[in-house]
Specification:
By secondary structure, the protein is of the alpha+beta class. The chain is built from five helices and twelve strands. The chain has a twelve-stranded antiparallel beta sheet.
Length: about 260
C-alpha cells in the first residue's frame, strides 16, 4: 500500500499485483465512469481527511475534498457551483448567490413529477448500468504515482449492448476513501440506493479505490492533508425545493 504525505504524488515504480481473479454478478441497471467511482469504497476505514483533483472525458478538472467519507465537497476548480455532502444529504451550492438546494429532495420530487407526466428517466437510480463481470488482468499500472492494477469491467446500460471498460483499481487507503466519498455523494442524490449496493458487491474487495476508467476519469493528484472545515459549511439554509417543484408540477399538469 502506498504511503501518503501532505503533498500530491509524483510518478513511482510499482510492484506486481496479486494473482488474477474474476468475479461475476448481475446488478441492477449516471455515466459509466461516475458509477464505477460510486461503486467503490466498500470496507470501513479509519477516517482520514484528504483531497484530490480529477479529470474527466469532457476535459474538465474538478476537486474533491473530504473530512471523512460522509463530509465531502466537490466541484470544478474555481467554479461558482459546488456540491457538499454532510449529515447524509447532498447539497448544490451557488456561491455568488449564496443559494443552497438539497439534491436528494429535488431528485425525488422530479422523479415523482416525471412519472406523473409519463416522462420517466429523471431518477439517477434508473440509469445505473448492470455490471456483468469484473476481471483482474494482472497488469500493474501507476496513476498519479499510486500503484494499481488494470481490470476489465463489462457493463450493460439499459437498451444498450455490453461495453467493456478498462479501469485501474488500487488498495491505496486514501484513494479508497476518495471513492467512498464519491459513493456517498452519489447515493445521497438517489431515490433508491439498491443499485449502488449491488455494484459494491460486484467489485473486488481487495482493490476498492478507483484511479482511472477508460480515459473517462482519472485521478491527477491526491493528498492526505486535511482541508479547512469551513469549506464544508453551507452558506445559507437550503431552499424548500419540494414546495417549489410541486408548484411547477401543477403548472405542467395544467398544460397537458
Amino acid at each position: 500500500m502506498s504511503h501518503h504525505n501532505d503533498h500530491p504524488y509524483s510518478a513511482s515504480m510499482i510492484t506486481p499485483p496479486p494473482a488474477d481473479r474474476t468475479s461475476h454478478r448481475r446488478t441492477s441497471a449516471l455515466p459509466a465512469w461516475i458509477l464505477l467511482c460510486a461503486g467503490l469504497g466498500l470496507t470501513p476505514l479509519a477516517h482520514a481527511a484528504g483531497s484530490a483533483t480529477i479529470s474527466t472525458d469532457e476535459n474538465k478538472t474538478f476537486q474533491v475534498e473530504w473530512l471523512d467519507p460522509q463530509t465531502v465537497r466537490m466541484g470544478e476548480q474555481n467554479a461558482n457551483e459546488y456540491m457538499v455532502l454532510r449529515d447524509g444529504k447532498a447539497y448544490m451550492v451557488q456561491a455568488e448567490q449564496g443559494s443552497v438546494m438539497e439534491m436528494g429532495e429535488m431528485m425525488r420530487t422530479l422523479s415523482q413529477v416525471a412519472k406523473g407526466l409519463n416522462q420517466p428517466g429523471l431518477d439517477i437510480s434508473d440509469r445505473i448500468p448492470a455490471i456483468e463481470s469484473v476481471q483482474n488482468t494482472g497488469k500493474p499500472v501507476t496513476v498519479a504515482g499510486i500503484r494499481g492494477v488494470s481490470y476489465n469491467i463489462t457493463i450493460r446500460e439499459p437498451k444498450q449492448p455490453p461495453e467493456t471498460l478498462t479501469a485501474v483499481l488500487t488498495d491505496d487507503a486514501t484513494v479508497t476513501e476518495l471513492s467512498q466519498a464519491y459513493l456517498n455523494t452519489a447515493a445521497a442524490m438517489m431515490t433508491s440506493t439498491q443499485a449502488v449496493q449491488d455494484i459494491r458487491q460486484a467489485l473486488p474487495k481487495d482493490h476498492q479505490g478507483i484511479l482511472q476508467v477508460s480515459g473517462k476519469y482519472a485521478v491527477k493528484t491526491v493528498s492526505s492533508k486535511k482541508p479547512d472545515p469551513a469549506r464544508f459549511v453551507l452558506p445559507s439554509p437550503p431552499t424548500d425545493m419540494n414546495s417549489m417543484l410541486q408548484g411547477i408540477a401543477k403548472q405542467l399538469q395544467k398544460l397537458n
